[in-house]
Amino acid sequence: MPINFRHAQELIYERLSKEEVTTLSITKVLGQMPGFNRQAFYKKYKNKFYFLGICVNSKIREEMMMYNYPKLKDNFYVLLHHIKREEIFYKNVYSLASKRCICEQLQNYLHDFVKEKHDEQPIFSKEVLKRETDAIYKRIYHWVSHDCYGEVKQIYKELETSMAHLEFLCNSNLRTSELLTNFENEHWKFRRLNVD
After folding, report:
1. Which range (33-37, 112-116, 136-140, 170-174) has the least confidence?
2. 159: which DSSP letter?
3. Measured between alpha carbons, how far is 70 from 68 in angstroms, rounded to an integer?
4. What's the rounded Cα separation, in Å, for the pair 163 and 149?
5. Residue 158 and residue 56: Cα distance in Å, rounded?
6. Position 174 pLDDT exceeds 50
7. What is the Cα–Cα distance from 99 to 94, expressed in whole angstroms?
8. How does pLDDT run across 127-155, given as a tens digit for each residue?
9. Are 114 and 170 contacting, i.e. CB atoms less than 8 angstroms apart?
10. How far apart are CA 190 and CA 26, in angstroms?
């Protein structure tokens, strides 16, 4: 009998949300669960870090589904408040995962979430969506890696440009690739000028 993912996730969350954790033994945390088998667990989840990534994604999606705002920026505001509220959990995940990076996994989850928020086929390149969601992820990751220092409103303000760009692209009525290409080129030119 396979383990119940929801129960396993709750046990991991419980372990990581109370105090600083420097090591995580899956066998110790999940060993008492009915149906737990170490070999079967690692066959399904590759390693504990991959499982942590799945737990983080599930936790964030649960939070987002409670509100399910139509605008992306509102969803990101909820996400930032959630991370601040559950700071100990996310700092522990960051600390544990720094030994074996799960960034790409989490970036892909964020990318998928943004795509799912829009029913219509977006009229822009996948690369633009990926760049914008990766930029948002990296800022949030930086925030968590610095102990969630700074207010949610400050981080949200820093992400506003990327969020507005995503919102525009996902809801735009652009219909020609020429218009889109010109927009993308101007946008990235503007971004590079502001960074330099």
Report:
1. 170-174
2. H
3. 6
4. 21
5. 23
6. no
7. 9
8. 778 888 899 999 999 999 998 888 999 99
9. yes
10. 47
Are 131 and 165 in contact by the 8 Å Cβ rule? The answer is: no
Arithmetic mean of pLDDT, 25-54: 88
- Residue 88: other Cβ atoms inside 10 A: 15
> Domain span at residue 146?
5-195
Residue % of the chain over a pLDDT of 70: 81
Name the DSSP letter for residue 99.
Answer: T
Per-residue pLDDT band at 176 (split at 50, 70, 90): very low
Residue bearing the bigger pLDDT, 54 or 119: 54
Distance CA 13, CA 73 (A): 26
CATH of the domain at 29: 1.10.357.10
The residue behind tokens 């990076």 is 101
- Residue 142's H or E segment, with its range, is helix 126-145
Whether 76 contacts 38, CB under 8 Å: no
What are the φ and ψ backbone dihedral angles of 136, each rounded to 5 degrees? -65, -45
Q: Which residue has the tokens 């829009």?
A: 118
Q: Residue 178: which residues within 8 A CB-CB, separation 6 or more? A: none
Three-state secondary structure string covering 31-86: CCCCCCCHHHHHHHHCCHHHHHHHHHHHHHHHHHHHHCCCCHHHHHHHHHHHHHHC
Domain tally for the chain?
1
